TrEMBL record:
Belongs to the class-V pyridoxal-phosphate-dependent aminotransferase family. NifS/IscS subfamily. Residues 2-362 form the Aminotransferase class V domain. It is an enzyme of class 2 (transferase). It comes from Subtercola frigoramans. It catalyses: (sulfur carrier)-H + L-cysteine = (sulfur carrier)-SH + L-alanine. The lineage of its organism: Bacteria, Bacillati, Actinomycetota, Actinomycetes, Micrococcales. This is cysteine desulfurase. Coiled coil: none annotated. It comes from the Bacteria. Keywords: Iron, Iron-sulfur, Metal-binding, Pyridoxal phosphate, Transferase. Gene3D superfamilies: 1.10.260.50, Aspartate Aminotransferase, domain 1, Type I PLP-dependent aspartate aminotransferase-like (Major domain). Signal peptide: none annotated.
Length: 396
């Protein structure tokens, strides 16, 4: 099987599992326990925190381990907005992950926040001038994702954070998809908060982190025993934290070379797909995009049907019309970049990791051609009225 769905999730790396193993077995203690088992767990947790902090340009006290990207995004948006009394205005973009969009909407519905959705252009990019223009004296937080999960577009984060800083507005960035590919040093980038998630980079599902610059206070979302310096109650996932730190360390060692090599593979894959299916529409930005990310709309198909054909040919990826959570709405990301709802139903996303090979991608491109042709042969013209309106969003 050729796995081209790394943006949905990745396998746990062997070295990660090996690093975690002791904390799932012999050294299984609760870091809050005062006996030696607990102390060993607390030490491992502290080391994992220090490692994550170092790799993200933060202090150890600025790292909050969470149960993944969704929780870290919730904590960033709700936690910063509710704890920092600048005002009740939030700025975000219409292409954010639901974890950010729904958190903003929660604050709007339950706490009277005003939410500005900063438009993006047809490639998914935010306009820095427009960003500067929407910031207000009562803007409490801006949250702009580093790289989009559906279309791969990478935002000019350093430029945006300089603007936010001049306006005195904290900037959070969801870097779940960027982690492992791009430099995420929050001090170098000038960011105030950043989200990462383990399962997108070779650590298990259910571990993530929010890094928050010390000058910002954080209202907890989970209340309880006061772990994570009160920011996130709940017995710590020690093995998960060790796994996340190990995965980040491994990714950082080869990150620049991997990004370079995989970008070249991506560009070749995109060019091959476009030469085989000339009307394939690449969604997202041509160059400011994640290394291992290629997403297309194939007019006259259904993304879901193409996905099934691809799987029959041994290629696994995401359809822009797979119903992630039983949703039958067209992808909010594709609509926000101006793609018509009908075309949005034909989206297919190919995402690959550092292990991608030219041979696999060539096989995948050939399978794309066969699959698109197969679906087009079977799909009546829209005027026939028989094509089912299958819509939704890919596994995030
Ligand atoms: N943010 C982005 C951009 C994502 O792609 C995902 C993936 O699901 C998330 C947040 C949520 O992360 P998690 O699956 O760890 O909750």
């Amino acid at each position: 099987m050729i796995y081209l769905d790394s943006a949905a999730t990745t396998a746990v790396r062997r070295e990660v599992l090996e690093a975690m193993w002791p904390y799932l077995t012999g050294d299984f203690g609760n870091p809050s326990s005062t006996h030696s088992l607990g102390e060993r767990a607390a030490t491992a947790l502290g080391e994992a925190r220090a490692t994550v902090a170092r790799l993200l340009g933060a202090r150890a006290s600025e790292v909050v381990f969470t149960a993944g990207g969704t929780e870290a995004d919730n904590l960033a948006v709700k936690g910063i907005a509710l704890a920092n009394p600048r005002g009740r205005h939030l700025v975000t973009t219409p292409i954010e992950h639901e974890a950010v969009l729904e958190s903003c909407d929660y604050l709007r519905r339950h706490h009277g926040f005003d939410v500005t959705l900063l438009p993006v252009d047809g490639t998914g990019l935010v306009d820095p001038e427009q960003f500067a223009a929407v910031l207000r004296p009562d803007t409490t937080l801006a949250s702009i994702m580093f790289a989009n999960n559906e279309i791969g577009t990478v935002q000019p984060v350093a430029e945006l954070s300089a603007i936010a800083e001049r306006a005195g507005v904290p900037l959070h960035s969801d870097a779940v998809q960027a982690a492992g590919w791009l430099d995420l040093d929050i001090r170098r980038l000038g960011l105030d908060a950043l989200t990462i998630s383990g399962h997108k980079l070779g650590a298990p599902k259910g571990i993530g982190a929010l890094v928050v610059r010390g000058r910002l206070s954080l209202e907890p979302v989970l209340h309880g025993g006061g772990q994570e310096r009160g920011a996130r109650s709940g017995t710590e996932n020690v093995a998960g934290a060790v796994g996340l730190a190990t995965a980040l360390t491994l990714a950082e060692r080869t990150r620049v070379d991997d990004a370079h090599r995989v970008t070249a593979l991506r560009d070749e894959f995109i060019a091959t797909v476009k030469s085989m299916v000339p009307d394939a529409l690449l969604t997202g930005h041509a160059t400011s995009r994640l290394p291992g990310h290629a997403s297309f709309c194939f007019a006259g198909t259904s993304g879901e049907a193409v996905l099934l054909e691809l799987e029959r040919r041994g290629v696994v990826c995401s359809s822009g019309s797979a119903c992630a959570a039983g949703s039958d709405e067209p992808s909010h990301v594709l609509l926000a970049v101006g793609i018509e709802p009908e075309l949005a139903q034909t989206a297919v996303r190919f995402t690959f990791g550092a292990g991608a090979t030219d041979g696999d991608l060539q096989l995948a491109a050939a399978a794309v051609l066969e699959s698109v042709l197969a679906v087009r042969r079977l799909t009546p013209e829209p005027s026939g009225g028989a094509r089912p309106p299958r819509t939704g969003v890919p596994a995030t």
